[in-house]
Amino acid sequence: MVDSPFLQELKFTTNGIRGVANQDLTPYTCARIGQAIGNCLKREKGGGVIISTDYRTSGPIIKHAIISGLISMGINVTDAGHLPTPALQKYIKDTARYSMGLMITASHNPPQYNGIKVIDGDGIEIPPKKEAEIEKCYKNWKPDSELPEWNATGHLTLDSGAVEHYVSSIVKHARVEKESAHDIHVIVDPGNGITCTYYQALLDRLGVKYTSIFDTPDGTFPNRESEPTPDTLRALSRKVVDEGASLGVGFDGDGDRAIFIDNEGNFHWGDESFAIILDDLLETYKGWVVTPVSSSVLVQDVVDAHGAKLEWTKVGSITVSRRMLELDAIIAGEENGGIFYNPHQPVRDGGMALALVIGAMTRKCCDIGSLFKALPKYHLHKETIQVKHKEKERIMSRVAEAVKKESVDKLITIDGVKVFKDGGSVLIRASGTEPKFRSFADGKSRETAERLARWGIDLIKQAMKE
Fold first, then answer.
1. What architecture does CATH give domain 165-373?
2. Does the predicted model carry a pTM greater than 0.90?
3. What average pLDDT does this structure show over 392-418?
4. How far lies 56's CA from each of 105, 111, 160, 228, in Å?
5. Which of 127, 159, 440, 466 could disulfide-pair with 427, CB 3.0 to 4.6 Å?
């Protein structure tokens, strides 16, 4: 077996802890992670932990190893079974019974990967300070040196109530006009992921018709990759057209993001579905809207048109959630399909996103294609380039210096480099979880978006040579 980097030290990414199952995340390293978390909780005199998994095949290995580590440290653990990430977050926030939650998932990554999202007692993933404490506890841990006596260990309980609690909250906050909901037909593509656990119950209670594809739980993702993209949602697009459906929705592996297909089978990035929700919500709400720098200029256009206020943040759902709370913002959104609706919970939530889009359709009394067409039109284009992890910082620094010499309309450097030019924008940024740089661009024409994205990649290539 290849030596795991986790044998030396633990490192959080922008989405918790990620690694290859049984190579990085082995039973041994996961038990150590559980003990490190337990040690931190004991020092803070914290309470119990609730844990759940998505359907990845390595989930039971990681979950049970972590539970073993936690219980060995005297921490009580509740196993909530299979849950979408936002369902676990909602349950933690509302029950107020747990100091921490652990979601075993690698979200959109390939099936050989898995990970651990560490959720704070308020339902939002833990801040960097707590991540650093866990990393320190892990690194400094001396095997078996601080274990309690046999009669002071923790205990394990089961709780299956989180899904019903989650669905009930979405329905409560959905803003769906029930009298017109029955005219809507949704094609659902869970991608064999965790959304299989609840989509039927949700759509039944929202009162819409639905058909599904790839709806059997399978952690190997046999039908499509767990990341919803134009390529992976082709079958969904065809199904929408073939069925004459109102819309299609594709979810990622852990159910916290949703991407939409219109009634003509066209794919739409999260910026556009966020804009539809905003266009509906901002008719009455004029406060703050939050979005990361990875979003399109489209979001700014819609916010400005309604007289609301936009706050750009660093990329990362934790940053967006925390900034929402600071500004008391009702809504936030990401280009990857993440929608944060504070009256429900201030974290990204694929089920809530679907309910809000359906709600907008029922109030506007028109098909989703018409809602998309009514928006200012931007074309989005993404390109990626492989780099070495250790080279990311140096490359980013050189790209930032190069951009300052260019003629641009506006520049944001809070996270990577976001350049506004030629009526559009491009974000040049290193991936937080993979050895890649990404260039996200948007423009009034497809040619402009593609040119801006390639311009970003060219800057990265030049920085790699220097």
1. 3-Layer(aba) Sandwich (3.40)
2. yes
3. 91
4. 7, 7, 19, 17
5. 440
